[in-house]
Design brief:
By secondary structure, this protein is an alpha/beta fold. It has one domain. The chain has two helices and eight strands; from the N terminus they run E-E-E-H-E-H-E-E-E-E. It has an eight-stranded mixed sheet, with helices on one face. The longest helix is centred in the middle third of the chain and has 14 residues. The radius of gyration is 15 Å and the shape is globular. The protein binds iron/sulfur cluster. Iron/sulfur cluster (SF4) binds next to loops.
Length: 159
């Protein structure tokens, strides 16, 4: 089961998309100097098909993408909900994205269920995706292949 602490419509997490970003709590990663320490606690409401349906009915005309921010405590549930978005709301063409703090995807996760995947822990002195020094990688899934598109975040004026 996944819990979410908050959600918002954002413009920078996924380049060229208007994204409904869901901040998932109970993060198991414990990065040093975590930028969102409240997300390490088991707080918030259940993230399931019901609330996703409510959001997509409400915001489908405003967003182009839905992003699961976290969820490493139950990655298969993240994938299951991404599949739900793609199947039940296929006519809306909403893209699916996942921000994981892990270095690699868990065994059995199919990249074809996502349009975008970010991997990598937060290491403060290396910075986030907008820093050229970052350890994190942002991938676009193109023809069943993970293409490293981290440089999209470095384009002039993006941040
Ligand atoms: S993955 Fe994000 S929320 Fe989790 S510990 Fe690392 S910085 Fe904090």
């Amino acid at each position: 089961m996944l819990l979410y602490a908050s959600f918002d419509i954002v413009f920078q997490e996924i380049p060229n998309e208007v994204t409904l970003a869901i901040n998932i709590s109970n993060c198991p990663n414990w990065c040093k100097n975590c930028h969102s320490p409240h997300l390490r606690e088991s707080i918030g409401d259940v993230l399931d098909e019901n609330i996703i349906s409510v959001w997509l009915e409400q915001y489908a005309n405003a967003i182009t993408c839905i992003c699961f921010m976290g969820g490493d405590a139950d990655p298969y549930e993240v994938e299951r909900l991404a599949v739900y978005v793609r199947t039940v709301f296929s006519s809306r063409n909403i893209k699916t994205a996942w921000y994981s703090g892990k270095e690699v995807l868990p065994a059995g996760i199919s990249i074809s269920n996502f349009d975008y995947i970010k991997l990598g822990a937060y290491i403060e002195h290396l910075g986030g995706l907008n820093m050229r020094t970052t350890n994190q990688r942002f991938y676009s899934i193109e023809n069943e292949v993970m293409k490293d598109r981290t440089e999209w975040f470095w384009e002039k004026g993006y941040f």
